[in-house]
Amino acid sequence: MSHYEAMMGRLRQNPLKNITLLKMLTAYHAQIDSVLIEQEQDWGVLLLMRAGTFGYDQRTYPEADTVVLMDYSSPEVFPALLERLPREAKLVFKLQEQAYRQALEPYFTLRRVRSLYSYSTDGGPGFRVDEDCILSESVDERLLPLWMANDYTMEELRHYFEEGAFSVSLFDGDTPLSTCIVYRNEERVWEIGAVHTAEEARQRGLAQRVVRTAVVHTLDRGYIPRYQVLESNLASIRLAESIGLTRAVTLEHWLNY
Question: Whole-model pTM?
Answer without folding.
Answer: 0.92
